[in-house]
Amino acid sequence: MPSHRMPSEADIISTVEFNHTGELLATGDKGGRVVIFQREPESKNAAHSQGEYDVYSTFQSHEPEFDYLKSLEIEEKINKIKWLPQQNAAHSLLSTNDKTIKLWKITERDKRPEGYNLKDEEGKLKDLSTVTSLQVPVLKPMDLMVEVSPRRVFANGHTYHINSISVNSDCETYMSADDLRINLWHLAITDRSFNIVDIKPANMEDLTEVITASEFHPHHCNLFVYSSSKGSLRLCDMRAAALCDKHSKLFEEPEDPSNRSFFSEIISSVSDVKFSHSGRYMLTRDYLTVKVWDLNMEARPIETYQVHDYLRSKLCSLYENDCIFDKFECAWNGSDSVIMTGAYNNFFRMFDRNTKRDVTLEASRESSKPRAVLKPRRVCVGGKRRRDDISVDSLDFTKKILHTAWHPAENIIAIAATNNLYIFQDKVNSEMH
Amino acid sequence: MEFKLEAHRIVSISLGKIYNSRVQRGGIKLHKNLLVSLVLRSARQVYLSDPCPGLYLAGPAGSPAVPPPQPGEPAAGPPAGWGEPPPPAAGAAWPEIEPQPERPADPATPRAGDAEPGAPMTGAGETVRGGEVEAAEAAWRRVEGPREAAEGGAGGPAGGSDGFPEGLREARRHCGCPPGAADRPGPLGACPRVDCCCAPRPAEDEPPAPPAVGPRKRGAAGVGGGPAPGSSPLKKPRRNSEEQSGGAAEEEEEEEMETGNVANLISIFGSSFSGLLRKSPGGGREEGEGEESGPEAAEPGQICCDKPVLRDINPWSTAIVAF
């Protein structure tokens, strides 16, 4: 594939997503490719090769496009992948770049018919004079072949850049959100969509906030949430009105005036929002914190965790090198007891909501040796420094973990570190607590 | 003083980012540019609320972050790709910008789609600095001239000045009051002399002649009148280019912008904000000028009390629009 960029930039992973059983793990990258990993069935004999993930399928989802009308190049980078709940033998997923969403169907073929009458094994037509009897072709096993085909292309629905997609629990519809609008689609209908949120002001000069992420409630097919660049969350009920510009609930925390700086607005912008599996809570990520919100309390989050507060004094430099605009994602574990998010220097953080303990781990080559135990890391901010501590100034801000995913049922996590994917398993505590 | 320097630096960086965003793959990112514009607003507020007029007069010596200006040098040439020639000198931009702050608010002064960032970061810095020094001279000459500007407008409602020239004017206040005296409202800002011109201008007081608000005027029939009398002929070409770009306000794409507009932008910020200041959308344009009732509504998060007078326009949002 021709590329004028650095050789590895197209390989930078831009999204990671487990399917609903955790058997499959999909990644999308900047080059528009999707790679699907499948968990190998655990073999009882070899205890140490339990359920590792191997490449299952690779395909090119999106290509770069050019919008001639606006003289705009449309990046092929995959912004989000969402799996559809499996309804038959095939798997389906939605992948999206800035402008176009595609539905892909992934099927397996492990048998093929043999014994045709009119053609031979290679498919060439037989000389009819050699055919003396009729036979019924039989299905014989073959090497597994994974076939991926695009089943739907949902195009031209968005003027601005798509930042999220979310499949509804009704398994029939899904929504896509860009900076200013959210559209509702039916999975089978590509030529039209229904606009359910529109925050574009009549006069663009009055623009003060944009939509940054959105998600359907996991159980209530009429509810969805979207986050804004101002740090607020809006829960909307599609039964209330056709256009859900008026929220049912507004979740907003008053700003702490003592923390005011030039960059207060930037760091309060929510980069990701995720419902808990229970549907009772929401998790949001802004630049320095992750917050847990209770759907029943709009005034403030019920929990706030500092991801890397030591960066608060460095916001100006982070603004200069654009790091302050990094959009980190966040994730719940299957039992909603632990939350996880990425940081810099290939660090990622986990917070146990029950014990209030947190840990910083590193995704690096050393730590990914088989059966290596991840060693907790520590960033020191001056004062006493322990031996393996990293000082704030020696953090590598080019190594950022923006995308993480947690297996829906087990303690398996997928961490995207630039162009490397790390999959860690907690063998000791396989069960969720 | 350090705040001012840092604010100035942040303004330069921000403008550079917005400029660079035009050439990024995938088109301009609305979210990022909105955030950058918010930073610009904050930086501007701090910049203008920190009264150090000496910064302008002293020239580059006080600002290590900025390259020394070349007064004789024309504005930094536009980067390749810009379709329009830059103005002869950035300094030329100042004379027409300068009178702006005196006027509380042009009635519904159309937000030009012009407010686009111009030069790349270094260029912006150079242009601004060059412009500043030249503006220092130019504005200084202007201030000496039309008295009306100085008398009525020099005081200006409390709070943020409207761009560099005002700070300049403060230093030269002919009543002898210390510079920045009128900058601060209330007891802090009280001038020693009761009758001095530093007294905050009453809300209704507007200079007789509409000032040149060239870059912000959208059309020849712009609301609020045509070009101010005595406006510099240099203004026209720039305005034309901005009007053209203003027409494309709706969507992301925008035409190239001249280097000189960088300087205009700085003072445009000085003039007014609306949408970004307010929590609720639908900005204050309808409030119009002259509506500034005594105490400005304290907006949450405001670092200084910006003149409500000047909140009818947010050219920076226009810049976002322009994208």
UniProtKB/TrEMBL annotation, chain A:
Q: Which UniProt keywords apply?
A: Repeat, WD repeat
Please give the InterPro entries that the UniProt record associates with this protein: PP2A_PR55, PP2A_PR55_CS, WD40/YVTN_repeat-like_dom_sf, WD40_repeat_dom_sf, WD40_rpt
GO molecular function annotation? protein phosphatase regulator activity
The record's PROSITE patterns line, in alphabetical order, gives: PR55_1, PR55_2
Q: Which cellular component appears as one GO term in the record?
A: protein phosphatase type 2A complex
What's the domain of life for this entry? Eukaryota
Family of the protein in this entry:
Belongs to the phosphatase 2A regulatory subunit B family.
Q: What is this protein called?
A: Serine/threonine-protein phosphatase 2A 55 kDa regulatory subunit B
- Source organism of this protein record: Zalophus californianus
For this protein's source organism, the top of the classification is: Eukaryota, Metazoa, Chordata, Craniata, Vertebrata
Supply the gene name.
PPP2R2C
From TrEMBL, chain B:
Positions with biased composition (Gly residues): 152-162
Q: Where is the composition biased (Basic and acidic residues)?
A: 139-150
Comp. bias (Acidic residues): 249-258
Annotated region described as Disordered, given as residue ranges: 63-261, 273-302
Matching entries from Pfam families are given as: IER (PF05760)
Q: Where is the composition biased (Low complexity)?
A: 73-83
Q: Which InterPro entries match?
A: IER
Instruction: Give the family this protein belongs to, as stated in its UniProt record.
Output: Belongs to the IER family.
This one is known as Immediate early response gene 5 protein
Q: What organism is the protein native to?
A: Callorhinus ursinus
